[in-house]
Design brief:
With 259 residues, this protein is of the alpha+beta class. It has a single domain, classed as TULIP domain (Bactericidal permeability-increasing protein, domain 1), CATH 3.15.10. Helix 2 packs across helix 3. The longest helix is centred in the C-terminal third of the chain and has 39 residues. It is elongated, with a radius of gyration of 23 Å. The two termini are 36 Å apart. The chain binds 2-acetamido-2-deoxy-beta-D-glucopyranose (3 copies). One 2-acetamido-2-deoxy-beta-D-glucopyranose binds next to strand 3. Pfam families: JHBP. Keywords: Signal. InterPro entries: Haemolymph_juvenile_hormone-bd (IPR010562), To_sf (IPR038606).
């Protein structure tokens, strides 16, 4: 996942560089070429700034929901039940589930990079989250290191720390001069987890097996939750940004109109 994040960021840097690239051209067209290039730079920046502002507003919309656009409350994002895949490694075999989950601070992001590349009709966006918190109840039962029973049942929380979300989208310009997103994918990568599982028992004398089991369980829960989050947030984000882009033409964004 980290590799993919790096790849997408690389892609974004490449696109930013290529849009100011000076191409070989005939001497006579030099002045014209220069004007077009400068025009592109302004156009990129004002559109990028506009979308950045819309992303900041979306964070507020996530906490209230926007019924008229069919956008539900996304912060907190509730999941009533999560069936987890059986964990089966050489060190651990564990059946588990989780319920009454509340995923909060999903709106606590800052847009760190937004760019629309009009030459390739691509949109790049990076969001940084300080953390996203998962609260819920869990149940698990299994064996660690072949011989130690491990089991638990109760409250848990997981703080997913320092999340970077890297997005790649496709855009079109409509006949009446509105930018619209047609596709968007988001990859989420995180640094580390802070975890607490109440009433998790078992293991050997020093409980090392319990710590490992908890850590694997937390990771499994996060791996199941992140795609659900993406599935809920991406369509809402696209609807929200497209709605905002329908309120203003690209010419008006560039002209510094009613932003
Ligand atoms: C999510 O769960 C919390 C806590 O249980 C609750 O207060 C809130 O109303 C729920 N939100 C939605 C959108 O269901
Ligand atoms: C767990 O893994 C072991 C070894 O790979 C395999 O023999 C066993 O069938 C697996 N059990 C389940 C329930 O998947
Ligand atoms: C989790 O699984 C256990 C064992 O199968 C079951 O008793 C419990 O009801 C399940 N919890 C939920 C929320 O489904």
């Amino acid at each position: 996942m980290n590799n993919l994040l790096k790849l997408l960021v690389l892609g974004a840097v490449f696109a930013a560089v290529s849009s100011v690239e000076v191409r070989p051209h005939a001497a006579g067209s030099e002045q014209h070429e220069k004007t077009v290039r400068e025009g592109d730079a302004v156009r990129d920046e004002s559109v990028d700034n506009y979308i950045t502002m819309v992303l900041e507003n979306f964070a507020i919309a996530m906490r209230t929901g926007i019924p008229i656009l069919g956008i539900p409350i996304l912060d907190p994002f509730n999941i009533s039940k999560l069936d987890l895949p059986t964990i089966n490694t050489s060190m651990l075999r564990l059946e588990a589930n989780a319920s009454d989950l509340s995923v909060s601070d999903t709106s606590s992001y800052v847009p760190t990079y937004v760019h629309v590349d009009f030459e390739t009709n691509a949109m790049y966006l990076n969001l940084h989250f300080l953390d996203i918190r998962v609260d819920g109840d869990y149940w698990c039962d299994g064996m660690a290191a072949v011989i130690f029973p491990v089991f638990g049942d109760g409250f848990f929380y997981i703080n997913i720390m320092s999340i970077d979300s890297s997005g790649l989208g496709a855009v079109i310009i409509t006949e009446d001069d509105h930018l619209q997103i047609t596709e968007l994918s988001l990859e989420l990568a995180y640094d580390r987890l802070e975890i607490y599982f109440d009433n998790f028992l078992g293991g050997g004398d020093f409980g090392e097996e319990v710590n490992q089991a908890i850590s694997v369980l937390a990771d499994t829960i996060v791996q199941e939750i992140l795609p659900l989050l993406n599935t809920a947030i991406i369509p809402a984000l696209v609807v929200y940004i497209n709605d905002a882009l329908m309120q203003i033409t690209i010419s008006d964004i560039i002209g510094g109109g009613s932003v």
